[in-house]
Design goal:
Length: about 375
């Protein structure tokens, strides 16, 4: 089996991952710099909320107009949002920065559905491997941005701003390049009629298997985004500078995407239950190690968090490939979970501290056990 014809899609997604690594992931630090540390989780919440609102729209549009059209529009929207976010933060205008974050979030609701485009392009028996390859390619974008941490710092100095702000401009350039690159990809799935393209949430949940899949995706995404978004602030408080925080995020991205070559085929061989159970164990371990003393434990936590998300999320995505019309609304629920997690997480940290948030998160992976129990013959 060859995935060479998917190379433009893989590369575009790698660029999008790189854009996220240098921009929205570090938004809590920008909020701190703007004097709103108590609202450090707000940008991530807006990103998730906007993605939740746009996911259903993009999912239906891609089925009607084609995956390439929808993905290209999402990348362009993300590039515009990143520029708006940079301008707002540079000028010290919090509402404009948050508007940019929301636009980037709306874009993510679209281009994160590239995984369905990948899965649709291969036989069912190889979909885990195809999704794992997408994850593996994505880590290249993150590592590229980590390697450019010093140049991004220099760019920030040249612009009279911080590296975190300069990263938003770099992210805009990467998303613009992804929009151009995706035009060279030839999708296999033909558009469908409008009546087939979108289901209501109630109709989607009426399909056997969708509710348990949605629970798995929402749990994995909510936990991962919450800890990923708020851990950089903890690292900053522990004395890590930009390069150190960037390395921490890259370790997390490595866990998320770097082992797709292993987890994808494992899911094809051992099934969805393996992904849900393994993901639950790793996500719980990540939450329990996050509050331990020392940056080394923080690095371990972030890596394990990414790997646990990988197992659970790829398993859920593979399962959801069977229900194209339910993909958008189900993705929307995942973003709602992520938005609620970051908003509440920021408040918990402000009132009770980071350890309280981490310990609370340690209990939530138990929801994945429900999804594992509901798996039948997969």
């Amino acid at each position: 089996m060859t995935f060479s014809r998917l190379a433009p899609l893989y590369t575009a997604q790698a660029l999008a991952t790189g854009a996220t690594t240098v921009s929205t992931v570090l938004s809590s630090l920008i909020m701190s710099g703007l004097g709103h540390e108590g609202l450090a989780g707000l940008p991530a919440t807006l990103i998730s909320a906007a993605a939740a609102l746009s996911a259903g729209f993009f999912g239906a549009w891609m089925l009607r107009a084609g995956r390439r059209t929808g993905l290209s529009a999402a990348f362009v929207l993300g590039a515009v949002g990143a520029v708006v976010g940079f301008v707002g933060a540079r000028a010290g205008l919090l509402p404009i920065f948050l508007l940019g974050a929301a636009l980037v979030g709306a874009a993510q609701g679209g281009y994160q559905q590239a995984r369905y485009a990948v899965a649709e392009s291969v036989p069912d028996a190889h979909r885990g491997t195809a999704l794992g390859t997408l994850m593996l390619m994505s880590v290249a974008g993150s590592f590229l941005m980590t390697g450019l941490a010093r140049p991004i710092e220099a760019l920030g100095s040249a612009l009279g701003s911080t590296p975190e702000l300069a990263g938003w401009l770099v992210g805009a350039a990467l998303l613009g390049l992804a929009a151009l690159l995706i035009q060279t990809w030839q999708p296999l799935r033909a558009p469908v009629s409008a009546s087939q393209a979108r289901l209501s949430l109630r109709a989607a949940f009426a399909i056997p298997g969708v509710k348990s899949t949605a629970l798995a995706l929402a749990t994995a995404q909510g936990l991962m985004v919450t800890l990923m978004s708020l851990t950089p602030l903890r690292a900053h408080h522990m004395g890590l500078e930009h390069a150190g925080v960037a390395a921490l995020i890259s370790g997390h991205i490595l866990g998320m995407f770097g082992f797709g070559w292993l987890t994808g085929p494992a899911l094809d061989r051992y099934g969805l239950r393996f992904g849900y159970l393994g993901g639950a164990a790793l996500l719980a371990a990540a939450a329990l190690t996050a509050p331990l003393h020392g940056t080394a434990w923080l690095a371990v936590s972030m890596f394990v968090l990414g790997l646990g998300w990988n197992l659970a999320f790829v398993a859920g995505s593979k399962a959801l490939t069977r229900f194209p019309a339910a993909q958008g609304v189900t993705d929307g629920l995942s973003y709602v979970a992520a938005g609620a997690g970051t908003l509440l997480g920021g408040a918990v940290i402000a009132r009770f501290g980071f350890p309280a948030l981490a310990l609370t998160c340690a209990f939530l992976p138990g929801l994945l056990l429900v999804s594992a129990w509901r798996v039948k013959g997969q």
